[in-house]
Structures are given as C-alpha cells and as structure tokens.
Amino acid sequence: PTRFFVADLIVRGANVVTPDGVKRLEIAIENGTILELAPTVTSKAKEEINAEGLHVFPGLIDVHVHFNEPGRTEWEGIKTGSSAFAAGGGTLYVDMPLNSSPPVLNKESFLAKQQAAEASSHTDFALWGGLTPDNLENLSDLAELGVIGFKAFMSNSGIEDFKAIDDLSLYEGMKKAAKLGLPVAVHAESEAITSALTKQIRDKGGKSIRDYLKSRPVIAELEAINRAILFAKETSCDLHVVHVSSRRGVALVTEARKHGVRVTCETCPHYLHLTEDDLEKLGAVAKCAPPLRSDKERLELWQSILRGEVDLIASDHSPSSPDLKDRDNFFEVWGGISGVQSSLQILLTHANEQGLSLQTIAALTAQNSAERFRLANKGRLEPGYDADLTLIDLDSSETLTKEKIFYRHQQSPYVGQTFKGVIKQTLVRGQTVFKDGKIVAKPLGRFIKPRYKHL
Ligand code: ZN
C-alpha cells in the first residue's frame, strides 16, 4: 500500500535488480533507507532521479580489498581505493588486515585503520582482522572491536610483518574463532609445495612468467583447501576460502559443505576473465597468487559459478607502487592485481555468453556477501535495507583508459579493454557519491560491524 509522505529521494523509471528478478520499479528513499519499492510511488520527493533506460543494482559489496592504509598509502590508500570502488558501482568494501602497516593484528592497529577509513572513505567499509602465529591472544579484542572475521595466509604473505600460519596455529586459531562466532578466511596455497617448487625452479635459473606459473600449480591450492577444511571440521570453525582459482578448489568446498562443514568460497573477476596466456602478454600488472590459470580452468570455473557453487565474487584488489612491478626476475615482481573498479563491468561483459542472469550477478556481488558476513541491511534492493545502489547503462560499453582510473597508480590489466555497461551513478545510503565519471561527495563512509553473534 502506498502511504503519503515526502521522501528524500525517488528513483523513477529504472529496471531494478531485486532478489526476485529484474522489475520496473520506483524506489523511495528516506534517511538513507529504502522505504518503498513499487511500480509507481505516488508520493512526492525532495529530489528525483530519472533513471529511464538504466538498471539499478544493489551497490557492490567487495569483501576482499587491500587499500594498504595506514602505512603503505603510497601503494593505494583509502581515498583513492574507495573512489575507484564507488566508480565501479561499489558501496561497501571489507579491507584486508594487510598490506597496511602495521597490519591489523591487535587493537591499536585496528583502531588506526578504522580512524583512517572513517576520515577518508567514500563508501561504507568493514574490516578483517589478521590471524598469524603471533596474535592468537588478540583475537577476542579484534572480535570485540567488530572485525568480520580473521584472515590467515597458508603460504608466504609477501609481507615481513604478516607471518604465514603454521598448521598448529591455524588449528588453535580456528578453535578460538569458533568460540568467538567469527569465520576464518584463508589464502589457501600450500607453502610446502610452492616454496619447494620455487626453490627448484629458481636454483636452475628460472625467472620467466612460465617459470612463475609452474611454481604455483592447482595442486598447491587443493592441498591447502583440504587441510583448512579438515581443521574447520575438527574445530567447528566457520571457514571462508578466498580467491579460489580452480573448479576443483571450489568442488572441495562444495563437497565439504554437503558433509556439514560450514565453509564458503569466493573467486575473483580476474580468474574469470584472464588466463595464463594473458599473463604472458600483460606481464607484471597481471601477476597474482594463486596465478591466472589456463583457459580450460577459466571456463570450468565459470561452470562452477553457473552451478551456484561459488558463494561470492570479490576483487582481491591488491596494488603496489609501480617500481615494485618493475623487475627482470618475474619471481621478484610484486604480486597483486588492481581491479576493484572493474569487477561489475567484467561480470556484465561475460553475462550473455555464460548465461549469467543479472539477478545472479547481484547475488554474487552484494547479497550473498552481506548474508555470509552478517552485514545487516546491506546487499539487497528491498524496503528496510540501506539505499546502497548503482545505476548502470547496460546498452552502452566503455573502454578503460588510464584517465578513467581512480587508483593511486594508473595500472591495471584491464587498461585498453572494452566492457559492457557504463556505471552512471553510485549512491551510498541514499547519497550520491559518484556521478558521470566524477566523485561528487565528501567522504561519508561508515564503519559497519557484523550484526549478531550466532552462538
Ligand atoms: Zn588478497
């Protein structure tokens, strides 16, 4: 029933991507919240947006970014990172405990990051805490402060002050996390396999892109996922496997879940869009770990998505300063892809060829992430939810040029590529943050805590 009120804002004329499908609806927004969604909202509004011809998606929730502030702001920073995210249709990101410096391993480092993000974030944000062999006694403090979970590296993190987790610490850390009612997220690659292969290859003088690819095979991912699942089962810990790069990696998660283990996984747009052949052409900007895979693996991963086995998609946006990408030996190049601005456009570009519905894209990029990590009132276009939304012209396409990049450094494997869909406007809690190529508001990002403990 339509009530009479004067809303703050009404979006009219758009095709709205709701959890039940795409519908022509008008959206009334009041105090940053979606008040009403109806074919016709009869009320008046202080402001209206004519979105005729556009689609409205829930704003992206990206649970895996590295904005590297404080301490490595010269690599990215919250202001530039969140601007790029908003330009890509994003409204809530979750920053990883590294590569900020110090990494988020205790109360002080958590508060330093929260403060930095509150000062300069253009979108809402949540935070991961770290789990290393050195900080088990700090997990309860971090839980109290509001982390969404604890991130551990099963292989070398690339950063001195964030140690890889050993098996016993992972097992003990999961016991603690289970008691705190929070998930543990793992970078799942076997350190034993990857470091031994790296040594073998480098001892023989190997330093090329192909040599690097050989040092991080799929089996390293599968072994680590298996081990993490075993520990999760034994400890009743809630597990999330980040950036899974292979169908078989996803299948291990699906299988474990069938057997009652609480485990989810994410993959990244780069594994769905790029291959190891692209890495050879693009070089350092496309280096990541786990690395890009063969085209066969890429297509199989798409099948995992279409079967509904991948819970969510996150960018793993992990930039560095350009000098760290400039090395003759590919093993010494900083690994990390800058992509937080392009996630949605990459998925939209592949949607038709893969048979991926807009509704599924919204689920994978917003709704599922909010539900998985208990980000209340986020991730859906429904009454009562935060008015986090992005307006997209799906009839147009756009080439990513360096000038359009909001990152601190204009580097990305996607420069020069043309994607379907132009992001016209992004609103965070009803306030326009990005419009027609520009950031148009002061930083307004709020810190979001997971809402309830489920014990
Ligand atoms: Zn990462």
Structure description:
This protein has 455 residues and is of the alpha/beta class. It is built from 13 helices and 18 strands. It has helices at residues 78-87, 107-120, 139-145, 167-180, 191-203, 209-215, 218-235, 247-258, 269-273, 276-282, 295-306, 343-354, 358-372; strands at residues 6-18, 21-30, 33-38, 44-50, 55-58, 60-65, 90-95, 124-127, 129-130, 150-153, 184-187, 239-241, 263-267, 312-313, 389-399, 418-428, 431-435, 438-439. The strands form three sheets. Strands 1, 2, 3, 4, 5, 15, 16, 17 and 18 form a nine-stranded mixed sheet that branches. A six-stranded parallel sheet has the order 9-10-11-12-13-14. The protein is globular, with a radius of gyration of 21 Å. Bound molecules: zinc ion.
**Pairing-aware structural class of the strands and helices?**
alpha/beta
**Per the principal axes of the C-alpha atoms, what is the gross shape?**
globular
Radius of gyration: 21 Å
| Unique bound compounds | zinc ion
What average pLDDT do the residues reach? 96
In angstroms, what separates the terminal alpha carbons? Answer: 38 Å
Number of strands: 18
Strand content is: 15-25%
Largest sheet: number of strands, sense, barrel closure: 9 strands, mixed
How many helical elements? 13
Assembly form of the protein:
single chain
Stretches where pLDDT is under 50 for at least 5 consecutive residues are none
Helix content: 25-40%
